Amino acid sequence: MVNVPTGVWIDEKGVVVRPSETAYTTKTKLTFAGKSITTEGDIYVAALRDWVEKGDKSVYALSDDEFRKRVQPRSPALAEADASFKLAVYFHNEGSTELAEKYWKHAQELNPDDWNYHRQDWSFTPTEAGKKWMDKFQKTDKPYYAPLEMPKPAETKPDKQ
Question: Biggest alpha carbon distance in the chain?
Answer without folding.
Answer: 58
